[in-house]
Amino acid sequence: MPPxxxxxxxxxxxxLGTSLLGASLLGTxxxxxxxxxxxxxxxxxxxxxxxQLTRDLRSALAGRRGTVSVALHDNRTNLNCTxxxxxxxxxxxxxxxxxxxxxxxxxxxxxxxxTPWEGRNLRPMIRSSDNAAASRLWNDLGHPYLAGxxxxxxxxxxxxxxxxxxxxxxxxxxxxxRLLGGLTGPRPFVTYRAYGLKLMSEVRKDQxxxxxxxxxxxxxxxxxxxxxxxxxxxxxxxxxGAFTGGGxxxxxAVLSHDNPSMAYGVRTVERVAQAVHRNLNKGRAVARGLTxxxxxxxxxxxxxxxxxxxxxxx
Length: 314
Hints:
314 residues, alpha+beta, Beta-lactamase, 6-stranded antiparallel beta sheet
């Protein structure tokens, strides 16, 4: 858990005021309504693929509770899929990809290699989702540079977490896809792209659930997940990733909240991922299936300390 003293929480409460506290107390239980089920896929050169994947995504989410957003882009077919991709969520640990990208970009802009200190913090932050390392990088980069990284990536609805609560950064599936594009897209900051993707391919085994479900053999997964329960909106379960190999690259971002448990949210995300991988890799052997329920921890990623206030959602 990031070292964020309770005295910061007291100051934050005073700044936010009683109206914010009152708003947070009005919605302390996660909702259980079914998510909207209107995914849209478009592929001008392969309309049959787009139509089939639209049906399969709708089927994957049928009967699932919670709120789910999806964004997908495949460079080979120019396929794009969205489902409520502009809906805002607390980022939890997926904001660490922004910190990774900002640190790599800063080094390249300054014409220098990564410092030993940067490397010592980037590696555990991505590989094991280390929160102390994330806090150090967040403070070192600062809001202005992080905001500039968001602008360069073309994000439109991501706002940085206030008062050091980086896990309360608000973001959307569409913006997460844009950030992944900084590492995989047509005009990335080339020098450090391979290093960033390498770290995301080395996420430890117990954190490799989510968008990897259903991926075929022969592709490499580069991912980051977030898993955070709070009094409002239940479990936030997010998984973002890029898949490379065989002359193709595709990016997936699946964000969700209002999940009754971590295992439930993981299964929802993985059903979406299975539909995507199956349609983009027809006939290929599957390398990874669904994550067994007994391998899902039901422990928070610690990206937001328990004393942090509940901020109202739009």
